[in-house]
Design a protein that fits this description.
Layout lengths: L10 H11 L2 H6 L2 H8 L4 H7 L4 H9 L7 E3 L2 H13 L5 E4 L6 E3 L7 H6 L4 E3 L12 E5 L5 E2 L11 E5 L4 E4 L11 E5 L4 E4 L12 E5 L4 E2 L11
Parallel strand pairs: 1-2, 2-5, 3-4, 5-7, 6-8, 7-9, 8-10, 9-11, 10-12
Helix pairs in contact: 3-5
């Protein structure tokens, strides 16, 4: 009689099977730090599910260093998830901020464009400044997000290594604000007409900055040749 073919389990099925076979007493004895290290092997979506098991796991999730897996905020559902994660999983390292969908926008920042603010005043607003709670953020990508004005809280991530901002015409900021990213290695900005400042101000990042791309940002002044003094 031929051997019985093994059934390949999907990831959720395998996790469920492991839960059934796990000895609750052994799991309960695991140190919080050990659980946090285990959680660190999973993407944020999985850790958010596992933290619901018990209070011990919820506390472990708060100290978990989330692996470098991108979490995209491109809908209201994803925004609500990230709002919970600011306290439940605060050590997120990578995030992409996008449009939230029809009828929704991020709350206006300081000094917004008044015409735009009036035109979209009927939209449901969501506070984008909540991501400032992710103090271990390494990569931040803002891609076509519906933003209007200045958001100083988004320029204070001491561990940030990569910043990309594209298609955010009314997102007002200056190159000088990048001093809030002392570890920044890569800067990529495209189609940001509200960006201002002088290329020379990037000199403050000469000990970390390795790559700079600024395209279609007509209000940026200075000579890119000035960067050759410190870019590799």
């Amino acid at each position: 009689m031929p051997p019985k073919k093994k059934t390949k389990l999907t990831r959720p099925q395998a996790a469920a099977a492991a839960d059934e076979e796990a000895d609750p007493a052994v799991v309960e004895q695991l140190d919080d730090n050990v659980i946090a290290i285990i959680f660190g092997c999973f993407p944020p979506e999985d850790t958010m599910r596992m933290r619901c098991v018990c209070k011990k796991w919820r506390e472990a999730a708060k100290t978990t260093i989330v692996p470098m897996a991108d979490f995209g905020v491109n809908s209201v559902v994803k925004y609500n998830a990230i709002r919970v994660m600011t306290t439940a999983l605060p050590n997120l390292q990578q995030i992409t901020i996008c449009r939230l969908g029809n009828g929704h926008k991020y709350s206006d920042g300081e000094d917004p464009d008044e015409e735009m603010a009036t035109a979209f005043a009927h939209f449901t607003t969501h506070d984008i400044n909540i991501i400032s709670n992710f103090r271990k953020l390494h990569r931040l990508n803002i891609d076509g997000a519906f933003m209007n004005g200045r958001y100083p809280a988004l320029f204070n991530f001491p561990l940030l290594e990569m910043l990309r901002i594209s298609l955010c015409c009314n997102f007002k900021w200056e190159l000088e604000m990048l001093s809030g990213f002392p570890s920044l290695r890569e800067l990529d900005v495209e189609c940001n007409r509200s960006l201002r400042g002088n290329i020379g101000s990037l000199n403050v990042l000469k000990n970390s900055l390795e790559k700079v791309k600024i395209i279609d940002c007509n209000n940026v002044e200075g000579n890119f040749m000035d960067l050759l003094t410190f870019l590799n």
